[in-house]
Amino acid sequence: MSEVVDRWVERLKGRLPGIGEMTHWERMAAAFALRETDMVPVAPELDYWQITYAGYSHQEIYNDVDKTTDACIQTWADLRTDAIWLYVDMSHVIEHFLPAEKRPEHFIHRGDKDYLLFRPIAQTLDEAIALYENRVYEKYVEGSRPATHYTPHLLQMLEFQEKMDRVVPVIVGIATPSNMAESLVEVQRFVRWTVTEPEGKVRHYLELALEERLAALDFYAEYAAKNGCEFVGLFGGARTWGPRQLAQFAYADERFVEKAAKIFPYIFWHICGHNLPEAMQALTKWEGIKAVQYDVPYYSQRLSWPEWFESVAKLFKGKRCAMNSPTTQLACHGTAREVRQMVHEFIDATTPHTTAVVMPGCEVDSFTPAENVIAMIDAARETRS
After folding, report:
1. pTM for the full model?
2. Relative to the CA of 68, which of 34, 58, 85, 336 has its CA 20 to 30 Å away?
């Protein structure tokens, strides 16, 4: 039982006006199932943004689970998006790979709205492999932020979801093998190894990451699925892989998806950064993925945004729900009018071919003006699917 959750449930349950003919949950589920919805769902990855929108600083919530949960629920109560994203930062992802005395030097707080910066844990491929072979993530998990902060926040948000009678789904994000492999060492270093290191050695590293991630799914089955979680975003790494790397190494992520799909009914794949045509093709074939949250086209493709939206929608027809728009850059630096225009362009280009969810390709920046987030939501609410 959580006091912060109970306060919000008492305030909101049975007192919120409906939006459209469907509940938020029904709207998201229908889009994932490629069925008609009353309006296009809108579920931006607010993440850090909801903390400062609710009046907190990132430093303030860093060690306060109740304030973190309060910020997420307050933001949803005000904006009524079609899903609520958990708050997550890099300490939740990798702190259990570090002994307690080493953690402060790897995580850097800056301004109130800035992301938590982190320093990589390993500098060489041998060091990265040793982290997994020595199973340090099991030795150091007790007292780490995944246990002391992320898990209680997860349980509080799922408690809210259930006590609100599943009016709105809570989205839980889970790192994939390639995402973890990148996060421990930094993206550019890992990508370089896929070119400079022996293929077998890189495969060994990825297979160790896969082993740890498959075990992590057992945790999510116990703490998320059994407490009502059904909507899950898989944070794909490999955001800068080319066709050769995809052919050599994508099997680890595909095996991860196979297990995740047996646990959760509504899975989508998050891929930010350059999206090669080969990557998008692969995501139409992996069994279990219902939708794809995608970002910018590959830089060599001379496509406008509407052309990119349409090409993805045609690729996904009968296979996947498409999730995009506006770009995080436009949301942060553009005008409300520009945001509305891009959302409409995405919907107009996508819905003739497949279902759509308005969702920028990555998390909304903390510095994004509230009027731009509201414009994103309003633009989706204006449009039937």
Report:
1. 0.96
2. 336
Class (C level, CATH) for 3-9+20-381: alpha beta
Extract the tokens encoding 274: 């350059």
Please report, in tens digits, the pLDDT of each residue of the chain (385 residues total).
Answer: 799 999 999 999 999 999 999 999 999 999 999 999 999 999 999 999 999 999 999 999 999 999 999 999 999 999 999 999 999 999 999 999 999 999 999 999 999 999 999 999 999 999 999 999 999 999 999 999 999 999 999 999 999 999 999 999 999 999 999 999 999 999 999 999 999 999 999 999 999 999 999 999 999 999 999 999 999 999 997 677 888 999 999 999 999 999 999 999 999 999 988 888 889 999 999 999 999 999 988 777 788 999 999 999 999 999 999 999 999 999 999 999 999 999 999 999 999 999 999 999 999 999 999 999 999 999 999 976 5
247: helix, coil or strand?
helix
Q: Are 283 and 258 in contact (CB under 8 A)?
A: no
Dist CA 148 CA 154 (whole Å): 11
Residue 54 DSSP class: T
Structure tokens at 282: 């692969």
φ, ψ dihedrals at 232, nearest 5°: -135, 130
